[in-house]
Write a structure and sequence with these properties.
The complex is a heterodimer of chains A (655) and B (327). Chain A is an alpha+beta fold. Among the domains of chain A are: 89-208, PAS domain (Beta-Lactamase, 2-Layer Sandwich), CATH 3.30.450; 422-649, 4-Layer Sandwich (Phosphatase 2c, domain 1). Chain A has 15 helices and 24 strands. Chain A has helices spanning 3-14, 17-87, 92-105, 155-163, 210-217, 250-257, 260-270, 308-311, 313-359, 375-421, 473-490, 497-509, 588-591, 603-613, 618-633; strands at 109-116, 130-135, 138-143, 167-168, 172-173, 181-193, 196-208, 220-221, 225-230, 236-238, 275-280, 287-295, 300-307, 435-442, 450-456, 461-469, 518-526, 531-537, 543-545, 552-553, 558-559, 573-576, 582-586, 642-649. In chain A, helix 6 (250-257) runs antiparallel to helix 7 (260-270) and helix 14 (603-613) crosses helix 15. The longest helix of chain A is centred in the first third of the chain and has 71 residues, at 17-87. With 327 residues, chain B is an alpha/beta fold. Chain B has two domains: 24-108 and 208-324, D-Maltodextrin-Binding Protein, domain 2 (3-Layer(aba) Sandwich); 111-203, D-Maltodextrin-Binding Protein, domain 2. Chain B has 15 helices and ten strands. Chain B is globular, with a radius of gyration of 20 Å. The termini of chain B are far apart. The chains are: A alpha+beta (655), B alpha/beta (327).
């Protein structure tokens, strides 16, 4: 692709919608207009030409017929006379009076002669040619054989004689003062003498051609169209320019103008052809049509010139009007398009600028009020309301974000507080070697409902608790704090775990409008004997690890969940840990951890893992179990709080 | 327009001076052998441009025509100078009239025979047995010699002044002059390529045509007048050939005065052909000279045709002013 077209394409691509719309619409409608316009002009012209040809033909033919009629009626007279001379017997006087009568009686005949090859009367070999003619209203006589040079080689005599057929002469002017345009019709006549046809002479009739000039002169086509008549030799017999008449031939005219086309038309005319041809004279710039048709009897030809400019003037005027209307229409279209395009592009431009402002964060940018209900107006209103909504939304978002941050920070504090109320320092009793204790908690949210606790009631008794409050989050954490505090407050020396849960339950149940509850496992370890008294308020069974054997569930004495039923009582169960044996407590977050296949971690998996890991100290075991859970859950987010606690009874080392 | 104005102005300014300086003008008359047309352009131009006056002649140009045979007018003393064909001049001289040629203007014969190719005539032989129309007298000398040369047996028909008989196919072959009838035929709608032309000068029958004649005694009485007439006439021709449009204007004016239909196109053709026929492009010294060989040849043919009994002597028949008088 050359750089120019590339540049042009880019230029086009970067132009505005209005420009593209106007340009493409104007160009395409302009082309359509031109096509229709051209077609209209062309076909109108064709129709006009067809019309003109028909008119030209009928006009020329009617005029030619008029001329033909006069000529052929004139021809009859000498033809009849010749017939008489061929067939009848006559003497000189009869001939003379007959000839005189013919000239007298026939108004159209100017003169008539009988020219004998050899005089039949006087027996002399010279000719005899009586000629009667009109002269100043009188009939005059002359014997043409007496004129200088004779008549034997004159056209009017010689041509019909040599051709042996009647002939019209070339038109000519009479001599003398009154120049009258004449033509002579000559008819040869014969006699059969001793079986042989013998040429006797020629009968002539001279007619004035004034009438013919009048007929042709009456041909007027609009302002400048005219008719011309040419003789057999192409001589202009009539022409609008007087000085050309009988003075030039159509071929001389063609030579003068250097116009071979005119010469060709002339040749067709003298050959007796007829036709309708365009004709542009070299001399003048005007274009014309010419219809020509022959006058058969005399060999002359009539041509009518149709001025093209005048004939197509109406079409031209109409064409101009259409063209001007077209241009006005196109201009109006462009103006209309400009207005429409502006109404589209102006809001678009404004919106493009506004969008940039908005992108920069300025939501207070001014937008014009939509004035129309069209798509552009709708877009503008939509854009306005979008801007408003966006502004409101961002305002709200700012507020929400602020309050969320506040809540989050409060929750973090709550988390810290919650964690702080759970014993977090391990080993908690560094001076006590009879037992090893470790616990961990991992809330699903900032704060959770799981909890654990352990404390010494007296020197020999370690109370340990693990619980799980129903629900999650802040309410659970508050309930948990209450529960933990109640448990710790309720535990005093000698109280059985069942009694602790019974009392705590009573406390929690009273006025528990939220219907929250907790599952709690509470145990008391005799650090000297390893005896464990315990009560279970609906919590998961702990595991007892008895060194080398499979972990066993510490089932039995399972009571109701704590806080649900006011009068519930909890039984105290009992078991013994021998030195080296451990108890493992946990919340349901451990066994109900879910992986991607929605499988539960499950009690069995927990027991198997614990059994495998029972050799580890409590901290190690709990860490490994936490890792196992994380490994199991993979990417599935933690759904519930997880808490684990393990106590290993070591027994009294020193005794 | 400007030039015309200027020349008028110059004439007004200088004419009296010239007239005063020169001797009084000598009166003389001149008869061309035909009615006014470009065939005589040189004389009309010389007249209109004042060349004759410049050479001391107050010339009257008579109107020629068929009813005014030049040599008859010359011998009867009705004109001082006349234009005519060489063959006519030789016949008059031979018959004892003391006419002399003082300038041979047309060196090449314009006479020709013309036929339509449609009549299957393309060579002289094709004319055998055909109808040929001929003019009378001098115009028949070359055609008859032509028929004799090619041994043709033709049917001769008298030809009038028009070519209509030929145009209407009444004859197969017609006489014509190159500068006149040939063009008339072309301008009657027949194309040159539809015609076969036989120029006599191309068939060894070159008859120099228009020449200027006067009587021997007139010349002897005042040789300077004759020579001045010849000089002025040649000047007229030279001017006419180099100023064609102006020459045509002048010729057309004379034609109109004679009340004859005037056709500029036709006169232009004629003037151009006169330029070809006069051979004025030859060495300037030979303009107007009758070549002895041409004179001899024409006399020979006239003699053979039985039109003259004795051939006139070239030296006494042709008097060339340049050589015989001025030097």
């Amino acid at each position: 692709m050359n750089p120019f077209s590339c540049g042009a394409t880019r230029m086009w691509r970067n132009r505005g919608i209005a420009f593209k719309l106007i340009l493409s619409t104007s160009v395409s409608s302009g082309l359509i207009f031109l096509l229709i316009f051209g077609l209209h002009y062309y076909s109108s012209l064709k129709i006009i030409v067809k019309d003109i040809e028909a008119n030209a033909q009928s006009l020329a033919l009617s005029k030619a017929n008029m001329i033909e009629t006069v000529l052929s009626s004139t021809q009859k007279i000498p033809e009849n006379l010749a017939c008489f001379l061929e067939n009848a017997s006559y003497n000189k006087e009869e001939i003379l009076s007959l000839l005189q009568e013919i000239v007298e009686k026939n108004a159209e005949i100017y003169g008539s002669a009988i020219a004998f090859e050899d005089s039949p009367f006087e027996g002399k070999s010279s000719g005899f040619a009586p000629f009667f003619y009109k002269d100043d209203g009188k009939i005059a006589f002359s014997d043409l054989s007496q004129e200088l040079g004779g008549y034997s080689s004159l056209d009017w005599y010689q041509i019909p004689k040599e051709l042996s057929r009647p002939q019209w002469s070339e038109p000519y002017y009479t001599g003398g003062g009154s120049k009258i345009l004449m033509a002579t019709y000559s008819v040869p006549f014969y006699r059969v003498v001793r079986g042989e046809t013998q040429f006797m002479g020629v009968v002539t009739a001279d007619i004035s051609l004034d009438w013919l000039q009048n007929i042709v002169a009456s041909i007027k086509v609009l302002q400048t169209g005219y008719g011309i008549l040419i003789s057999k030799n192409g001589t202009l017999v009539t022409h609008p320019l007087k000085e050309r008449i009988m003075n030039e031939t159509i071929f001389g005219l063609a030579e003068e103008r250097g116009d071979p086309n005119l010469r060709e038309i002339g040749r067709k005319m003298v050959r007796g052809e007829s036709g309708f041809v365009p004709f542009q004279s070299r001399g003048t710039e005007e274009r014309n049509w010419v219809y020509y048709t022959p006058i058969r009897s005399s060999g002359w030809a009539l041509a009518v010139l149709f001025p093209r400019n005048e004939l197509v003037a109406d079409i031209k005027r109409l064409t101009w009007i259409v063209a001007i209307l077209g241009i006005i229409g196109l201009s109006l279209l462009s103006i209309g398009l400009t207005i429409v395009a502006r109404s589209i592009t102006k809001p678009l431009t404004t919106m493009a600028k506004a969008t940039q402002e908005i992108a920069r964060g300025n939501l207070d940018v001014d937008l014009p009020v939509p004035r129309s209900g069209d798509e552009a107006g709708l877009l503008l209103s939509a854009f306005r309301s979008m801007k408003e909504s966006l502004r409101d939304y961002i305002q709200r978002l700012t507020e929400t974000t602020a309050s969320k941050e506040r809540i989050e920070s409060e929750l973090m504090i709550a988390h810290d507080i919650q964690m702080s109320i759970l014993p977090k320092v391990f080993p908690p009793f560094p001076d006590r070697e009879e037992f090893d204790i470790y616990a961990m908690i991992h809330p699903a949210r900032e704060v959770g409902g799981d909890f654990y606790d352990f404390f010494l009631i007296d020197h020999e008794h370690l109370c340990f608790v693990i619980g799980d409050v129903s629900g999650k989050g802040v309410p659970a954490s508050l309930f948990m704090a209450v529960t933990k505090t109640l448990i710790k407050a309720t535990s005093f020396k000698g109280i059985a775990p069942g009694e602790i849960l019974t009392r705590v339950n009573r406390e929690l149940s009273q006025g528990n409008e939220t219907c929250m509850f907790a599952t709690i496992f509470c145990g008391v370890l005799n650090t000297r004997t390893g005896e464990i008294l315990y009560a279970n308020g609906g919590h998961n069974y702990p595991c007892i690890l008895r060194g080398g054997n499979e972990a066993i569930w510490l089932k039995g004495n399972n009571g109701l969940v704590v806080g649900a039923v006011e009068n519930a009582t909890y039984q105290t169960g009992q078991t013994i840990l021998h030195p080296g044996e451990s108890v493992f407590l946990y919340t349901d977050g451990v066994t109900e951890a879910v992986n991607e296949r929605e499988e539960l971690f499950s009690d069995d998996r927990l027991r198997t893992k614990i059994t495998l890991l029972q050799g580890h100290p409590p901290k190690g075991l709990i860490s490994r179990i936490a890792e196992e859970i994380a490994l199991f859950a993979q990417n599935v987010p933690q759904a519930d709080d997880i808490a684990m606690m393990m106590i290993r009874f070591c027994g009294k080392r020193n005794g | 327009m400007l030039r015309t104005g200027l020349s008028i102005l110059l004439c007004i300014l200088f004419f009296p001076v010239v007239a005063a300086a020169e001797k009084p003008l000598k009166k003389a008359s001149f008869l061309p052998q035909w009615s006014p047309q470009a065939q005589f352009a040189g004389y009309y131009v010389a007249y209109e441009k004042g060349f004759y006056k410049n050479h001391g002649i107050d010339l009257t140009i008579l109107q020629g025509g068929p009813e005014r045979p030049p040599f008859l007018f010359l011998t009867e003393g009705k004109t001082d100078f006349a234009s005519s064909w060489l063959s006519t001049g030789l016949r008059w001289r031979s018959s004892g009239h003391k006419v002399i040629n003082i300038c041979q203007i047309v060196q090449r014969s314009a006479l020709m025979l013309i036929a339509k190719k449609a009549h299957h005539i393309t060579t002289p032989r094709d004319m055998d047995g055909k109808k040929v129309s001929l003019w009378g007298d001098e115009f028949q000398i070359q055609p008859r010699a032509f028929f004799k040369k090619y041994d043709l047996n033709v049917k001769i028909i008298p030809q009038s002044y028009s070519v209509n008989l030929f145009l209407r196919d009444g004859v197969d072959v017609a006489s014509a002059t190159w500068y006149n009838e040939y063009h008339t035929i072309i301008n009657s709608g027949i194309n040159p390529d539809e015609l076969t032309t036989f120029f006599f000068h191309e068939h060894g029958l070159n008859f120099p045509e228009d020449g200027l004649y006067t009587l021997e005694e007139s010349f002897q009485r005042d040789p300077s007048l004759s020579c001045a007439f010849v000089k002025a006439s040649i000047e007229g021709w030279v001017y006419a050939f180099s100023h064609q449009e102006e020459a045509l204007d002048i010729v057309l004016r004379f034609i109109e005065q004679a009340k004859i239909p005037a056709n500029r196109t036709h006169q232009k053709w004629m003037l151009n052909r006169m330029k070809d026929l006069t051979s004025f492009s030859d060495p300037p010294g030979s303009i107007g000279m009758l070549q002895p060989s041409d004179c001899q040849k024409v006399s020979q043919i006239l003699n053979e045709s039985g039109l003259i009994e004795r051939k006139p002597e070239y030296e006494s028949f042709f008097v060339w002013c340049d050589k015989d008088v001025e030097k």
